[in-house]
Design brief:
Pathway: Carbohydrate degradation; glycolysis; D-glyceraldehyde 3-phosphate and glycerone phosphate from D-glucose: step 3/4
Structural class: alpha/beta
Shape: globular
CATH class of the largest domain: Alpha Beta
Radius of gyration: 28 Å
CATH topology of the largest domain: Rossmann fold
CATH architecture of the largest domain: 3-Layer(aba) Sandwich
Enzyme class: transferase
Binding site for ATP: 31, 94-95, 124-127
Binding site for Mg(2+): 125
Number of helices: 24
Subcellular location: Cytoplasm
Largest sheet: 9 strands, mixed
Number of domains: 4
């Protein structure tokens, strides 16, 4: 930008990384997973973009062994329309032959004939282990081929080193070193769709349903779907129930029925076992429930439904980021770089040595075989551990007799109040996942011994006194509900401070949990600043960011944004499909987001857009002209359709109508245009599994922080909290969940446009442009340096926690 001060540029750009003269091959192996195609597409396009030759290897390792037509050069167009397809277009097969030395010799010969020395393998731990063995044997295999006269010395020299980068495609999420594997989120979508559908019929007939989900050795899918749908009981291989579990489970099911709950859901991983290593099957559970309780019980086995269907927005973005990162890793590899996997930790792409991850994954199995289950859970990694601890927090309802009775003794003999009144409210526009967060907060609060209060209609309801106690049973079934069941308003507290202080006094409220978007942040700042004048406001306050726009500072992700992205991507898929019969059509689609271009950019990346217009990246008429030219060129290829996304506030003069008319005029004779304004469908719908899970976890974390802060600020018989670290926002920053004082976030915020001054996702824009064939510069200084798998962690501090 003109006039901006020049800072010393320490960034590293990948223009220096050329793929000229290199050959990269991509294959998918093992069980298929949704999102594999997005990864293949990204590898092919990024490879071609940097000047390398890219090959498909069809049918996994079998195709590598058989050679011939199974190894084909890929073109830019050959990966078009792959993004929204589930499974793997290039095929996958289990290959016995590759496990033999002869098979690997044939495979090496087929690769050398085409000068392929860079392999990108997308599969599970078995596929990646095979790739590593192949790499270790490579020079020996070349020597053998030379001795047999199949290749000459020059070929052996030229192809002397084989570089391997892996991406983990597995719906089970059973690979150590990455928070999410490609396909896991989509599999959760399938499971939750089924659970939501089953809940309505179970409700009608007061039935109990036992659902079996995939996961022979890993309980991730079962655990997270149980969290996301509020299941009554879950069975996973990593946490066998204690002896006598049959009675405990039946007791819990009958208690829930007595509490007017009309249905029970029990989720079983296919590899579930008891503490004696005996399998726990859905039929066994069904017979048990029928025998002990007489409940009408049905079994549903989801099976391969979980592998199918279109990939979710999360999986497409994950796979696209991983694919690009994999090509960068191959370009940077030298002869002695170990084989690596590209993985996701928190919100960051990292590279980890392949064999370290594989060894750790195998150690999990070993720990489980030796019945060291706590150890197995720890080895699974922090994401799994966190899900499990949240599930445990939420699943065991304490009897009233077990709850703290209000007084606890502090170390110095002083009485310490452990039962406090905590109020929960929603502020701003509704976002899917808000209800899951409220449910989690209420139940964790009750478990921690607090009295929980629900405030209807945000701060407007607060000053009008719409505050009532909310009990455990009141939030049953809330996780799957969209919108905001408490009611939400954009009203800020600033003009009603007297009445709000009065309500806090009347209900004796000791802490506040505010779940909402940008208005929630403004509200917290107003309450924090008013502490000097109102003693009632000197209480701990925590905010959870929940907005589809994802425009709150202090967090990389907000509750609700994932559901909204899925709505956008699903609609874009349909719109693109509508053009499959009509040639040469360009769609211009307007998304929400205020001034924040997150939905448009990330939605564009997931839907395969050609151009995305956002406020954060200024554009002028010359850019619009260049985009039209670009589409005109595209129409000359076999891909004869275009997709353009525009954020609603990206430019006050270049409106959606203006852009539509400009494209229609300039494209006359080459392509025609259609426009769509997505509107409020982006705000509605049932929350995605990610938003349910994210909302549940952050709310549980926030309630634990509130409990700690209340105990710390309880002095002389009352709560008094006026330091800046008692008014916080809990956000996800790169790799961890962090509590940040809202007063410190003020400087990071552009209040006029209601966006953070720095936004991490802007780094994804060049990636989107590259995949749409634009020349651009891509900053790779943030790109994954090779790290190591961490095993044992120190105890987490109070302010941060891994997600």
């Amino acid at each position: 930008m003109a006039g901006a001060p020049k800072r010393q540029d320490t960034r590293k750009f990948f223009e220096n990384l050329s793929g000229a003269g290199k050959c990269i091959a991509v294959l998918t192996s093992g069980g298929d997973a949704q999102g594999m195609n997005a990864a293949v597409r990204a590898v092919v396009r990024m490879g071609i973009y940097v000047g390398a030759k890219v090959y498909f290897i069809h049918e996994g390792y079998q195709g590598m062994v058989d050679g011939g037509d199974n190894i084909k050069e890929a073109t830019w167009e050959s990966v078009s329309s792959m993004l929204q397809v589930g499974g793997t277009v290039i095929g996958s097969a289990r290959c016995k032959e590759f496990r033999t030395h002869e098979g690997r010799l044939k495979a090496a010969h087929n690769l050398v004939q085409r000068s392929i020395t860079n392999l990108c393998v997308i599969g599970g731990d078995g596929s990646l282990t095979g790739a590593n063995l192949f790499r270790e044997e490579w020079s020996g295999l070349l020597t053998e081929l030379q001795q047999q006269g199949l290749i000459d010395e020059e070929a052996a020299q030229k192809n002397s080193a084989l570089h391997i980068v892996g991406m983990v495609g597995s719906i089970d999420n059973d690979f150590c070193g990455t928070d999410m594997t490609i396909g896991t989120d989509s599999a959760l979508h399938r499971i939750i769709e089924v659970v939501d559908a089953i809940m309505t019929t179970a409700q009608s007939h007061q039935r109990t349903f036992v659902l079996e989900v995939m996961g022979r050795h890993c309980g991730y899918l079962a655990l997270v779907s149980a969290l996301a749908c509020g299941a009554d009981w879950v069975f996973i291989p990593e946490m066998p129930p204690e002896d006598g579990w049959e009675d405990s489970m039946c007791q819990k099911l009958s208690e829930n029925r007595a509490d007017n709950k009309r249905l029970n859901i029990i989720i079983v991983a296919e590899g579930a076992i008891d503490s004696h290593n005996k399998a726990i099957t859905p039929d066994y559970i069904k017979d048990l429930v029928v025998r002990c309780l007489g409940f009408d019980t049905r079994v549903t086995i989801l099976g391969h439904v979980q592998r199918g269907g279109t990939p979710s927005a999360f999986d497409r973005i994950l796979a696209s980021r991983m694919g690009v990162e994999a090509v960068l890793a191959l370009l940077e590899a030298s002869a002695n770089t170990p084989a690596c996997v590209v993985s996701l930790v928190g919100n960051q792409a990292v590279r980890l040595p392949l064999m370290e991850c594989v060894q750790m994954t195998q150690e999990v199995q070993k720990a489980m075989d030796e019945k060291k289950f706590e150890e197995a859970v720890r080895l699974r990694g922090r994401s799994f551990e966190n899900n499990l601890s949240t599930y445990r927090l939420l699943s065991y309802r304490k009897a009233d007799s077990e709850l703290p009775n209000g007084e606890e003794e502090a170390g110095d003999g002083q009485q310490l109040n452990s039962s406090f009144n905590v109020a929960v409210l929603n502020v701003g526009a509704p976002a899917a996942g808000m209800n899951a967060a409220v449910r989690s907060a209420v139940r964790v609060g009750i478990t921690e011994g607090h009295k929980m209060f629900a405030v209807n209609d945000g701060f407007e309801g607060f000053y009008k006194g719409q505050i009532k106690e909310i009990k455990w049973g009141d939030v049953g079934g809330w996780t799957g509900q969209g919108g905001s069941l408490l009611g939400t308003k954009r009203t800020l507290p600033g003009k009603h401070l007297d009445k709000i202080a009065e309500q806090i006094r009347i209900h004796n409220i000791n802490a506040l949990l505010v779940i909402g978007g940008f208005e929630a942040l403004e509200s917290l700042l107003q309450l924090y600043e008013a502490r000097a004048n109102y003693e009632e406001l000197c209480i701990p306050v925590c905010m959870l960011p929940a907005t589809i726009s994802n425009n709150v500072p202090g967090t990389d992700l907000s509750i609700g944004a994932d559901t909204s992205l899925n709505a956008i991507v699903e609609t874009c898929d349909r719109i693109k499909q509508s053009a499959s019969g009509t040639k040469r059509r360009v769609f211009i689609i307007e998304t929400m987001g205020g001034y924040c271009g997150y939905l448009a950019t990330v939605g564009g990346l997931a839907a395969g857009a050609d151009t995305v217009y956002i406020y954060e990246e200024a554009f002028d008429i010359r850019d619009l002209q260049a985009n039209v030219e670009h589409l005109t060129q595209k129409m000359k290829t076999s891909i004869q359709r275009g997709l353009v996304l525009r954020n609603e506030n990206c430019n006050e003069n270049f409106t959606t109508d203006f852009i539509y008319q400009l494209y229609s005029e300039e494209g006359r004779g080459t392509f025609d245009c259609r426009k769509n304004i997505l509107g409020h469908m982006q705000q509605g719908g049932a929350p995605s599994p990610f938003d349910r899970n994210f909302g549940t976890k952050v709310a549980a974390k926030a309630m634990q922080w509130i409990t700690r802060t209340l105990k710390d600020s309880y002095k002389g018989g009352r709560v008094f909290a006026n330091s800046e670290d008692t008014a916080c926002l809990l956000g996800m920053r790169r790799r961890a969940l962090v509590f940040q004082p809202v007063s410190q976030l003020r400087d990071e915020t552009d209040f006029v446009h209601r966006i953070p001054k720095e936004q991490w996702w802007l780094k994804l824009r060049p990636l989107m442009k590259i995949l749409a064939k634009y020349k651009t510069s891509y900053d790779v200084s943030d790109s994954g340096q090779l790290e190591h798998v961490t095993r044992f962690r120190a105890k987490e501090s109070n302010t941060t926690a891994t997600i």
